[in-house]
UniProtKB/TrEMBL annotation:
Family annotation (PROSITE patterns): PPR (PS51375)
UniProt-listed PANTHER family: PENTATRICOPEPTIDE REPEAT-CONTAINING PROTEIN
Coiled coil, from the record: none
Organism of provenance: Fagus sylvatica
A single GO BP: RNA modification
UniProt-recorded Gene Ontology molecular function terms: RNA binding
Protein keywords: Repeat
PPR repeats: 101-135, 202-236, 303-337, 404-438, 505-539, 575-605, 606-640
Protein name: DYW domain-containing protein
Length: 837
């Protein structure tokens, strides 16, 4: 027994027991470390809002197991709450940790930046510095991003200075963040300087610089950057190709885009969704829809962006039917359209002016809860305004809180299109009151409203605002200013504005040519048309139509034929509007056969074409042919518009068919539901006036639903002059002297009425009134075409260098006519040069 006790002595017992405890402690420590590592791995996997609940359960397990003081787990818990977006829990966790290292601070700054709370991120950064904790290379990218989020480049530069002092400037992640900060805030020079200094550039850094140039529309530097990247050891990725292909799309570089497509295939990225979608957009914008469709059909998977790009491509290239078909196919295969799809597709509905289809899409949006962003709202308003449903457009505008300058511009443009110029100006005043800043498109849309109201003063005020903001050099703004001045009767100011535009596009030239043609300056219009071609700017159908209108006003058949020849050579012979203008030119130049020949040779005819030929026969007194054409138009399925009936009623007036004219007027309003406009009432007054039914003409004026303008009263006054009705002439002239007091023609007409009636006292009173109001009589001009040159002169004008020759030609022509029995009592007055003047 003693031996046993000796063998297991207390000392030995104690020693043996201590070894066991120490061994147990080591085992427990290893188990704790393994368990903590396992929990840390689980926490690291909880990296999104969807797994926040699981992260909280792990946090509870940490507390239950007594690991709350474990530094590793505490940091992982903080990171989990940051990644899951639970900032409040992250903050509570943050203050339980040891804050001597940069990691907890970096995690909090990252969380605030991720949530968009950039000011809190920067506040924690400065607190970190205040606590004597130095940031590391993982801290600075988040701090720089916070500076960018606040658009505070100045603070970003201070942070950059700290980065340089700590030696992190050339770190790939820190450098990329700095380059992005400078680039996105317009400091492209600083971004490029830092980029060039970086010793190692990864693909992300190259893409940042590429994206900078693309966003600033600097295609040359963007392509140069891409070439430099290709010469480096860095291989471009899908983001790189998407950037460069977007440059090809915006600049219509289809050859380069096709070459890049080949490079994309070589790199194995042709099935990458962003690259494929950008290729699709590039082919669409370069008007290569066949290639775009082929690419679309080859794509194994098409997402919503792909469908949107293809629909947008069809709409941009004018294939509205194909866009509608693709939109229906998209819905049938189960792809749900979003606001971008609908905003891209709605212009196709606008183009076809199909109000019912627009309402169907609007109903789809309401049923499926499609969010009404500013672009979609603008597209909806545009379609309702262009389909003449102004009240629905007003409702959409007033119901939504998301109203920006784009939506206001759409409303202004739509109101102007519908002739509601006062409402357009009211919207413009409202947006100024709401502290919105009008852009160039807004101002260019508002100027036509000033032109429609002949509000020259307001137009000048807008012009002044445009000059102050430096927007006058833009073509679309300059064109709008030119058009406004021309329509307000200040062709001189229109010409000055036109001359100051440095780079003129086709629209700008068209505006000036049309202004001259419509303001009694057809010679200037034709001259500008020549200059347009010499300057290298391409003609379009509007240029052709405006020049042909000038030839019609000048009765210059020779110039008209030259333009017709140019149309055939320049592939404009199939344009409906240019061909309609050609019909009008030949008709007004007296060549009705050529006008009919052009009409018969047209491949497709719209209402404008039919209106032109109906008007041509009507103005030449061929009422029967005019009505025959009208019925042919109806048989061909073309619905008449207000211009059609204007031509028919005018033709009835020229032929003296009062009953027919009145019948077609009623047919227009009752059968076709077309409301009579000012021109229709003026035509009816002319119809009754020519037939001597002046009382009916006066009753027509009194029955008008709106206030008659000077044109209506002037028509009545002209009829009174023909039929010698002094009483009604006095009534008409009183209105005319109020509406247009500086028009000398009305004074002369009234004077002639009184002179025909032998009322010479009244004649003297009218002459005295003209002197009192300083009304100058505008001389009447005539023109004659000699050797394909048009010469203009007025009565008793001896200033023209060939006036004596022209007088001799006219006199000889008259003598020949008198020999054949024409104009026996007509003699030319003596030429001023033969009178010694």
């Amino acid at each position: 027994m003693s031996k046993r006790l000796t063998r297991i002595s207390p000392a030995n017992f104690i020693h043996t027991n201590c070894n066991h405890i120490e061994h147990s402690r080591v085992l427990y420590s290893n188990t704790e470390h393994a368990w903590a590592s396992q929990l840390a791995s689980i926490l690291q996997a909880c990296n999104g809002p969807s797994v926040l609940q699981q992260g909280r359960q792990v946090h509870a397990q940490v507390i239950v197991c007594g690991y709350s003081n474990n530094a590793l787990l505490g940091t992982k818990l903080l990171g989990m709450y940051v990644l899951c977006g639970s900032i409040v829990a992250a903050k509570n966790m943050f203050y339980k940790l040891e804050l001597g290292s940069s990691l907890p601070w970096t995690l909090m700054i990252r969380g605030f930046t991720k949530m968009g709370w950039f000011d809190f991120a920067l506040l924690f950064y400065f607190k970190m510095l205040g606590c004597g904790v130095f940031p590391d290379k993982y801290t600075f990218p988040c701090v720089i991003k916070a500076c960018g989020g606040l658009n505070n480049v100045r603070l970003g530069k201070l942070v950059h200075r700290t980065i340089r002092l700590m030696g992190f400037e050339f770190d790939v992640f820190v450098g990329s963040s700095l380059i992005k900060l400078y680039a996105e805030n317009g400091c492209i020079g600083e971004a490029r300087y830092l980029f060039d200094k970086m010793p190692h550039r990864d693909c992300v850094m190259w893409n940042v610089m590429l994206n900078v140039y693309v966003k600033n529309a600097d295609s040359i530097n963007a392509l140069q950057m891409f070439l430099e990247m290709r010469n480096s050891e860095i291989r471009p990725n899908s983001v790189t190709f998407a950037c460069v292909l977007s440059v090809c799309a915006s600049e219509a570089m289809v050859v380069l885009g096709t070459q890049l497509h080949g490079l994309v295939v070589r790199c194995g990225l042709e099935l990458d969704s962003p690259v494929a979608n950008t290729l699709l957009a590039m082919y669409s914008k370069c008007q290569k829809l066949f290639d775009a469709c082929a690419l679309f059909d080859m794509m194994p998977q098409t997402d919503l962006v792909t469908w949107n790009g293809m629909i947008s491509g069809f709409v941009q290239n004018g294939f509205m039917g194909e866009a509608s078909h693709l939109f229906r196919e998209m819905i049938s295969v189960g792809v749900k359209p979003d606001s971008i799809t609908l905003a891209s597709f709605l212009p196709s509905v606008t183009e076809s002016a199909c109000l019912n289809q627009g309402k169907e899409i609007h109903g789809y949006m309401v049923r499926h809860g499609v969010p009404l962003d500013v672009f979609l709202k603008s597209a909806l308003i545009d379609i309702y305004l262009k389909c003449r449903n102004v009240e629905m457009a007003r409702k959409i505008f007033s119901q939504s809180n998301t109203t920006d300058i784009v939506v206001c511009t759409t409303m202004i443009s739509g109101f102007t299109l519908n002739g509601m110029n006062s409402d357009a100006l009211a919207i413009f005043r409202w947006l100024l009151k709401e502290k919105m800043r009008p852009n160039s498109v807004t101002l260019a849309s508002t100027l036509p409203a000033c032109a429609g109201l002949a509000a020259l003063k307001l137009g000048k005020e807008l012009h002044c605002n445009i000059l102050k903001n430096g927007l006058d050099g833009r073509c679309h703004v300059g064109s709008a200013i030119t058009d406004m001045y021309a329509k307000c009767g200040r062709l001189d100011l229109a010409h000055q504005t036109f001359e100051r535009i440095s780079e003129r596009d086709t629209v700008c030239w068209n505006s000036m040519i049309t202004s001259c043609a419509q303001n009694g300056k057809p010679e200037d219009a034709i001259d500008l048309f020549r200059q347009l071609g010499k300057g290298g700017t391409k003609y379009d159908c509007v240029s052709i139509s405006a020049a042909l209108s000038a030839c019609a006003n000048l009765s210059s058949l020779h110039h008209g034929k030259e333009i017709h020849s140019f149309m055939i050579k320049g592939a404009f012979s199939s344009d409906l509007f240019a061909e309609s203008a050609l019909i009008d030119m030949y008709a007004k130049c007296g060549n009705l056969d050529s006008a009919r020949s052009v009409f018969d040779m047209m491949q497709g005819k719209n209402e404008v074409s039919w209106n032109s030929i109906i008007s041509a026969y009507g103005n030449h007194g061929h009422l029967k042919d005019s009505l025959t054409l009208f019925h042919e138009m109806l048989e061909n399925g073309i619905q008449p518009d207000h211009v059609t009936f204007l031509a028919i009623i005018s033709a009835c007036g020229h032929a003296g068919q009062v009953d027919n004219g009145a019948r077609y007027f009623r047919c227009m309003t009752e059968q076709y539901g077309i409301p009579a406009q000012m021109e229709h009432y003026a035509c009816m007054v002319d119809l009754f006036g020519r037939a001597g039914q002046l009382n009916e003409a006066f009753e027509t004026i009194k029955s008008m639903p709106f206030t008659p303008d000077a044109g209506v009263w002037g028509t009545l006054l002209g009829a009174c002059r023909v039929h010698g009705n002094v009483e009604l002439a006095e009534v008409a002239s009183r209105h005319l002297f109020d509406l247009d007091p500086q028009n000398s023609g009305y004074y002369v007409l009234l004077s002639n009425v009184h002179a025909d009636a032998g009322q010479w006292g009244s004649v003297l009173k009218i002459r005295s009134l003209m002197k009192e109001r300083q009304v100058q009589k505008v001389p009447g001009y005539s023109w004659i075409n000699i050797n394909n040159n048009t010469h203009i002169f007025c009565a008793a004008d001896g200033s023209h260098p060939q006036s004596a020759e022209i007088y001799s030609i006219l006199n000889n022509l008259l003598l020949e006519l008198r020999k054949e029995g024409y104009f026996p009592q007509l003699y030319l007055p003596m030429h001023p040069q033969t009178m010694g003047l």
